[in-house]
Amino acid sequence: MRPTFAQINLAAIRHNLQQVKQTIAPGVRIIAVVKSNAYGHGAVPVSRALLEAGADSLAVALPEEGVQLREAGIQAPILVLGMFLPEQAGLYVEYDLTAAVVTERCLTALAEAARRKTSYATVMVKLDTGMGRIGIFPSQLLSFLEMIKQRKELRLAGMFTHLACADAANKDHACSQLAIFQSSVQQAREHNILLPLVSAANSATIIDLPPGHCSAVRPGIILYGLPPSHEMQQHLNLKPAMELKTRVVYVKHVPANTSVSYGYTYSTSQPTWLATLPLGYGDGYNRHLSNKAQVLIGGKRRPVVGRVCMDQIIVDIGDTCDVKIGDEAVLFGRQGAEEISIAELADLSGTISYELLCAISARVPRIYVD
Predict the structure, then answer these.
(1) Largest pairwise CA distance in the chain
(2) Is 363 annotated for ligand binding?
(3) Which of 11, 87, 157, 359 is the most exposed place for a label (fewest CB within 10 A)?
(4) What are the pLDDT digits (tens) for 36-83?
(5) Does 129 fall in a domain?
(6) How many whole angstroms separate alpha carbon 242 and alpha carbon 366?
(7) Residue 167 belongs to what domain range?
């Protein structure tokens, strides 16, 4: 097997789900978000672990992601969060996926697909309360719900929205969106429209805004052990579920003034030992980490020197070689008493931890531990 791999701790994922359960009220349902290959962790094994641990249903971004889970034998309800084109409507009916609906065209396509199968399509209305991506406006809600009601092939599962700034220290925008959403829910109820599921809570809302828990929450990044942002004073005992590891494949001694990697962005200041690791940006190790990041070898931090290549990186061992070929190297995760977090690498890359997790490419094997 390739020496570079991502180690996924399913016990940590189960633990993180329990943290969510302890935060919400009894009876609030959990829609576990496993889009983008479960944030890089592996959609099928992670989904199974989450359902075993008590998640009520799953959420993905694309109907094709839902199809993957169905073909793996997963039978729990699956909400597709993103929009779809009319020609994709048949997937929702064939694989029993819940569609986020925002246009009459969506409704018509789903109804026609259901009619062809002598079946029905389950839909969930997406309300735009200020995110600005997809969703109907509150002023359109009643007429849109009436369109759903008129199509006997459609079954209404509920309504949801997404809060754009819930992970900010200042909650004013989030509270404003939440108030709009709650008013819209009340409007539907006053017109005797049943909304079995009402959901506004992403990970940040679960942590910081209990009034937004409604009847269902949608945890994402916290399931994988990471807080939504640095601005939050999150109180959950989260355990990161992924570690990225490889092994040293080459060690050599070089003199002072040796230039390293593309563009000669680094030169040794004194005689030193260099070690080569067999991974790079082709595996999702961000090129912005060049000359910034560190890795763990032998329980010590070692600087990444020179530019990150597609398939290799180089680290400076120092003037004494205490590293040999085959030694474990940890790109993020724990080794001995030391730890390099994905959040640390995200800061160095100028991005967020979500992106770095999702970027770990398919050529990196996932190894699951419990």
Answers:
(1) 79
(2) no
(3) 87
(4) 999 999 999 999 999 999 999 999 999 999 999 999 999 999 999 999
(5) yes
(6) 9
(7) 10-224
